[in-house]
Amino acid sequence: MSEDSFAIRMIDLDGFKAVGMINRKYADFTEKHQFPFVLTIELSLVNTDGGYPTSEESERLEEIELNLRNIVKQTQSEVHYIGRVNREDAQDIFYYIATDELDGEAIGMYCDTIEADRGIDIQIFEDANWDSVSGLLD
């Protein structure tokens, strides 16, 4: 697979300009069928300026993202990071994985440590055609 190729995407969501950092190498990824499960993580933003994360908030979000990715890697041999989108007062993170097997206990314990500060919603579901991110990759 080619090297990561991140691009900034501006997306209009109900009059708010959402900003995405998307790994464009997945636009032409030929092995999507081998990774039919999407893992989405929605984090509420705590420190914002006009609905966007402050630099301090961005650092905290990156830390959370890295910690969650490391937990997912405990049960998945490959984790395909598509990117993240900052929308008004929230951030969405997208991964594709081969199975829906995750260490729910480890994820739950980690989420407990951050839920005092912010809301978090983690979902995993089958998305064999990568429909959840098709608009980001186009």
List the helices and strands and how they pair.
Blueprint: E1 6-13, E2 16-23, E3 37-44, E4 48-49, E5 52-53, H1 55-73, E6 80-87, E7 90-97, H2 104-114, E8 120-126, H3 134-137
Antiparallel strand pairs: 1-2, 2-6, 3-7, 3-8, 4-5, 6-7
Helix pairs in contact: 1-2
3D architecture notes:
- This protein has 138 residues and is α+β, with helices and mostly antiparallel strands.
- Helices cover 25% and strands 37% of the residues.
- The chain has three helices and eight strands.
- The strands form two sheets. It has a six-stranded antiparallel beta sheet with strand order 1-2-6-7-3-8, with no helix packed on it. Strands 4-5 form a two-stranded antiparallel ribbon.
- A hairpin with a 2-residue loop joins strand 1 and strand 2.
- Helix 1 packs antiparallel against helix 2.
- The longest helix has 19 residues.
- The chain is globular.
- It starts with 5 loop residues before the first strand and ends with a helix.
- The model has no long low-confidence stretch (mean pLDDT 92).
